[in-house]
Specification:
Layout lengths: L3 H24 L3 H15 L16
Length: about 60
């Protein structure tokens, strides 16, 4: 089950990667956008441990 922040990061990474891929294939000007999108996408594919205390420190006061 994916948490909301993980799903948001996944969608954002895919959108940034798609925009970067379209602009890169057009004029070869923005490869950094595509790499950032792929990096965000891959980071959000990692399984995150819910028992880690540093993950939810901001939400649990």
């Amino acid at each position: 089950m994916m948490i909301r922040a993980q799903l948001f990061g996944l969608v954002t990474g895919l959108l940034i990667g798609l925009v970067g891929w379209v602009t890169w294939s057009r004029d070869l000007a923005e490869p950094a956008l595509m790499l950032c999108g792929i990096a965000i996408f891959l980071l959000n594919l990692r399984p995150q441990q819910s028992r880690q205390p540093s993950v939810n420190t901001a939400t649990h006061r």
